[in-house]
Design goal:
Number of strands of chain A: 11
Largest sheet of chain B: 7 strands, mixed
Oligomer: heterodimer
Number of helices of chain A: 0
Shape of chain B: globular
Largest interface: A-B, 25 and 30 residues
Distance between the termini of chain A: 41 Å
Strand content of chain A: over 45%
Distance between the termini of chain B: 32 Å
Helix content of chain A: under 10%
Largest sheet of chain A: 6 strands, mixed
Radius of gyration of chain A: 13 Å
Helix content of chain B: under 10%
Shape of chain A: globular
Radius of gyration of chain B: 13 Å
Order of helices and strands of chain A: EEEEEEEEEEE
Strand content of chain B: over 45%
Number of strands of chain B: 11
Amino acid sequence: KNQVEQSPQSLIILEGKNCTLQCNYTVSPFSNLRWYKQDTGRGPVSLTIMTFSENTKSNGRYTATLDADTKQSSLHITASQLSDSASYICVVSDSSYKLIFGSGTRLLVRP
Amino acid sequence: ETGVTQSPTHLIKTRGQQVTLRCSSQSGHNTVSWYQQALGQGPQFIFQYYREEENGRGNFPPRFSGLQFPNYSSELNVNALELDDSALYLCASSPGLADNTGELFFGEGSRLTVL
C-alpha cells in the first residue's frame, strides 16, 4: 500500500534554532516528492519539488534532501522564525495523477 | 496569493443535504484537483479534471462528483451529506497533469461543517 509517514507528529523549538523533519514513503513507482507548508486553516504552499535524480534542493532557509534508495526525505529549517509555525506536509507522486500526502508535522516556534 | 479562489469559505449543512463548492483556477491552468482534509490530517485526493474530463479519482464514493467548465473553473458536488464529510475542501490548479513536476497551486479552501 502506498503510504507516506512523517515524524515527528509535532515539534516545538525556540526562535533562531534549526530543526529537521522526516518523511518516509513506500510509494512505488516514484515520480517526485514535494514539501508543502500549511498555515492553520489555509491552503498548502509549495516549498520544494524533487525528482528521483535530485538529492537536495533549497528554498531560502528550507533545505530538502531525498534518498530514493532508502525512500526517505528530510526538510531542514535553518534559523527558525515565528512565521515558520505551521504544518509541513510531505507529498509523493506515484507517476500517475495521484498524490499521496503525509499527515504532516506541526511545528511551533516560540520566542 | 496563488490566484486560485474558492467559495464559499465556510458553510454549515445538515445530514442528507447536498453541497456545491466552487473553484476558479489560476489563469492558464487547465488542470484542477480536489482534496478533502479532515482536522489534523493530510489532504486526501478526491479527483482531478483535465480539460473538462475527469482524469483520475481517489477512494471516494460516487456521491462526490465534479465538473470542470470551458474556462477551467470547477465544482465539487457532494450529495447525501454525512457527518464525516465535515472537513476543509481544497482545490488546486496546475498548468498540466500532476504527474509531472509542475507546481500545484492551492486555494484557501472551503470549510464544510455537517451537523
